[in-house]
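From: lab user (bench 3)
To: helpdesk
Subject: output format question, protein + 1,3-dihydroxyacetonephosphate

Hello, I'm new to running complex predictions and I'm not sure whether the block I got back is the full result or only part of it. Here's what I submitted:
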Amino acid sequence: MARREIFAGNWKMYKTSAEAVKLAKELVSGLEKKPGREYVIFPPFPYIRDVSAECSGTPVKTGAQNIYHEVQGAFTGEVSPLMVKDCGCTFALIGHSERRHIFNETDADVNRKVRAALDAGLEPMVCVGELLEEREGGQTAQVLERQIREGLRGFPAADFAKITIAYEPVWAIGTGKVATPEMADDAHKIIREILKSSAGEAAAEAMPILYGGSVKPDNIEGLYKMENIDGVLVGGASLESPSFLKIINV
Ligand code: 13P
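Helpdesk reply: Thanks, we reran it on our side. This is the complete output you should expect:
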């Protein structure tokens, strides 16, 4: 079955507003739209409105790097999914490893945020991935199973059609240590099996699973060729248009 193919860039906490808009402009003008391929960028919160406006009417969609799980209220410093939607975003990144490991987000937080994103009409892109010690301890499958089961607990099959998974092994993020295409493909197979038992065969088959962690122009081809890799979520190499365009135009 042909699955959605998504190429995404997570800008993390980088760029000024002028740089953000310039980068979006360069991406829009440099991308060679491939049939069936979708493009998403995740700018920092203060720029999502301007970057969304810049991308409006183009194949590039925008998303928030995080959301809060409530729609409104006395939650100083938090950002509502409805605000993100109102600023032009289509996606919300949820449970990124930096959220989990620096800001102590749990699988229960991920679950609440996925619910809130769906309720606001955003597409959740849910990040999962094991730590180096978990991989070395042979616990990768177990960690992925817990993150997916707990993170996506209680959603009906119809909701799964709007969810995307990004597999980002924590040891490969920002380290230059990319998982080999075979390692990534194996993890994606494990994820799809877990999804089958929690979302059902059809929903699991249809769900795109992206790889993230030190994706660069010189390793994209090997990753992209793998049967179970439906796209990528790029950090560092998405911050400059020449490198990101080489990746998204693969
Ligand atoms: P790097 O591509 O910089 O390793 O970051 C990956 C990532 O965290 C994307 O969300």
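A quick orientation on your result: The chain has one domain: 5-248. Let us know if anything else is unclear.
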